[in-house]
Specification:
Strand order of the largest sheet: 1-6-3-2
Order of helices and strands: EEEEEEEE
Number of helices: 0
Distance between the termini: 17 Å
C-alpha cells in the first residue's frame, strides 16, 4: 500500500528529495516536492528490464512537500521480488532517478 501525506509549506519547484531506508525490506519512504503552481508529474518504479511495476503519480499532482510510504508491492498489490528497482521522477524542469534495493 502507499500513504501520501501533505505538508502546509509549499515548495517553489519540483524535486525528488529522499528515499529512506534504502536498501529496505518492509517499507521505504519517498519524499518529493510539488510547487504551489502544481503541474503534471510522473513518479513510477521500474524493474531492471524497464517494465513499469508501480505507478504512484501519473498526472496532475497536489502541491506541497509530499511523503509516500512504499511497501515494495506492484500496482496489483503483489509483493515484488528481491532485487534492484528504479524510481523515476519526471516533472516540468526536473527529471531524477534513484536505485531502490528491495531485500527479503
Amino acid at each position: 500500500t502507499s500513504d501520501i501525506a501533505e505538508n502546509a509549506d509549499l515548495p517553489t519547484s519540483f524535486a525528488l528529495r529522499s528515499v529512506s531506508p534504502n536498501p529496505f525490506s518492509r517499507t521505504t519512504e519517498i519524499r518529493f516536492d510539488v510547487p504551489a503552481s502544481g503541474g503534471r508529474l510522473s513518479l513510477r518504479v521500474f524493474d531492471v528490464n524497464g517494465r513499469a511495476v508501480r505507478t504512484f503519480v501519473q498526472g496532475v499532482a497536489t502541491p506541497g512537500a509530499q511523503r509516500l510510504v512504499w511497501d515494495g508491492s506492484d500496482d496489483a498489490g503483489h509483493r515484488l521480488g528481491v532485487g534492484v528497482y528504479i524510481l523515476s521522477f519526471d516533472a516540468p524542469g526536473r527529471k531524477a532517478t534513484r536505485k531502490l534495493v528491495l531485500l527479503p
